[in-house]
Structures are given as C-alpha cells and as structure tokens.
UniProtKB/TrEMBL annotation:
SUPFAM superfamilies: Pentapeptide repeat-like (SSF141571), Voltage-gated potassium channels (SSF81324)
Domain of life: Archaea
Keyword Membrane: yes
Name of the protein in its database record: Ion transport 2 domain-containing protein
Transmembrane segments: 321-341
Amino acid sequence: MSKTRCGYVEDVELLTNRGTARCWRPVRGDDDRCFWHDGSPKTREALDSHRPEPGERLDGADLRGADLTGASWLRGRSLVGADFTGATLRGTDLTGADCRRATFDRVDARRACFDGADVEGATFDDIDLREASLDGTKLYRASFTDVRLDRATDFGDRVIYESLVDDAEDRETRVATLEAASWTYRELRRLFEQDALPQRSRACYLGEKSTRRRAAWAGGEYLRALKLEGSRWVMRYGTSPTRVVTSSVVVMGCSGILYPLTGGLRTDSGTYGFEQPVADVLAATPGQLVRVFYNGLYFSVVTFSTLSYGDIQPIGAGARAIAGVEALLGSVLMALLLFVLTQRV
C-alpha cells in the first residue's frame, strides 16, 4: 500500500516549549514526502499556492533556493530545523518565528525582520544582514560565519536575555540566562569588529562585561564579582581613562584630608595636624585650615605619584598607613591609566 501522508518528524526533544509533531500533509505524486519536505525546488508560484494556514508548523521545511522576498506568512511560524540555504529573504518578515537549528547559508536577508524570533543553534554562513532588524532575537549558540552587517543592521539596545533575567524562577536559570546574554554580546562584538563597526563593538563589549558581573553575583562567585565591580567603577572595564583619572583625584583628595586628622604632617617649618580632630577643626581659623589641608593635599599628591621629595613626613601610625596605601594605589592607578590609553589607540 502506497504512502499517502508525509510523516516527517523534526527532532525537537531537546528544545524547550516545543513538542514533537508529525507532518500530516499528503505526499506529492510518487514522492514519499509532502511539498514542504520533498526537497524539490520551490518556485514563487508554488509557494503561494501552498501557503500554510495560520499556526501551521513548517518544522524541517526544505526552502533551499526559495524566493521569499517580502513574504509575510512566515511571521510567528514554527520553522525549527528549516533549511533556507541559497534562499532570498530580502524584506521577509520572520517576526516571532521559531527558527531554532535552522540553516541560513548563502542567504540574501537584506531588510529582513527577525524581531523577536528564536534562532538559537541556527547556522548563518555567508549571509547578508545589511539593514536587517534583529531586535529581541534569541541568538544564543547560533553559528555566524562571513556575516555582512552595516550601520543600519539593528540588534536593539540590549540582547533579549537581559530582559528575561527578572522572569527567572530560580538561581540556576538566572545564571544561565545571564551567561546566554554574555555569550550573545561577545558574538555580536566579534561580528561588529569584522565589519569595522567599532562603536557598536565597544557597546557589546560593555554589555558582555556587565552581564558577566551580574552572573558572578547571581552565581555566588563573589571574588570575581568584586573584581568586575572594581573594573566597572574605576575604568569602566578598561574603556574610560576619565574614570581612572577621577578615581585618582578621589584617592588624592581623601588622603589629603585624612593626613591632618590621623596624626598630622611634619615639615621644616612646623607640624600640621589636629590632635583632637573634631574640636581642633571647629576651633581653627579659616587660614589655619587652609594651611593644614594644603600641606595634606601637597603630601598626598607627591605620595600618590611616588615623587617623595622628603620635605614632609607623616606623623603617627595612622598617617603612615595611609601614605603606604596611597602610594600603592597610585602605582596601580597610573598603570591602569596607561593600560586604558593604549587600549584606545
């Protein structure tokens, strides 16, 4: 007895939110598969005549070489494992489509819309995505090779996984979602670098570092999280010399204030400090305060920069401890400033 139904089944056991379904469509002539799975070339006229009903799944559909220019009937469609090799998707609307594990090799997808689509695990090889929109698209573990982008290619302000973190039900899911976001930012950064889009590459770099920091906190890796927090605030993950300079000024200013309050400073012309910080500061005249804190700031600057002229010395264990810490911080921050500046050249 000849086969009358296609019976094609796409393996979706490892995919979430997607149950297995067997294709019930009738076979074509002597073939044992339906129009969507028989592997034959599909003309535009044939595609229009076989247009699926709303909600009809096209998992594993063979759309190799198909002309889908401007097609809107793929919107929200289940296309798990579909093969678009050599297809024309110029201006095609794939909004909200489930294209996990699909193949997009040698595809012209200029001005195509993938907004809100799921292309996790899909393959993009030799694809033109200029002027395409992928805002809110799930890209985790998709493979990108020889992808052409331009300034009009839109991936949104942030990857979709960051929006999904708040909906995570447990710690493990939260960490996994943040790791997916970090991976996506890293992959987008690589693509933007290849297409000479440095500003967008830098934005993705910052997004990757930010999600890695959040993942470290969520996963209980507190030492790693603190390291990333320090990098964030001191130098914006190695991208902002302004933050390094600001951090240096804060260290010098705070140290300059603390020296007179923790023992004082000794110079050839006298001692500058307060034995009883609160009472002495309140009793001092404006001129005295200026002289004391001016010397404190001066000593702070030469200590931070490790110049150490020797014309002024800290008094007491507290002031000496601050001087040692400041000298160490000065060396570290100046090295970081040099590092950040060389990164921007």
